[in-house]
Amino acid sequence: MTTVSSTTPGRPSTESRDQAATATVPSARSIAPSARPSTLPGSSRPVLARDRAELRAGLAALDRQANIARRGEGGPPAPDDAPTRAAAGHPRPTRAVVMTMGALHEGHASLLRAARAQADQVVATIYVNPLQFGAGEDLDRYPRTLAADLDVCAGEGVDLVFVPRAIHDPPPLVRLQAGPLGELLEGAARPGHFDGMLTLVGTMLHLVRPDLAFFGRKDAQQLVCIRRMVADLAFDVTVIGVETVREPDGLAMSSRNVYLTPDQRRSALALSRALAAGARAQAGGRDTVLATAREVLAAADGVDVDYLALASPDDLRPVRSGPALLLVAARVGTTRLIDNIDLVLPPESPAPAPTGTPASAGSPAVTPRPDRPADRDHPGA
Question: Where is the region Disordered (predicted)?
Answer without folding.
Answer: 1-49, 64-91, 346-381
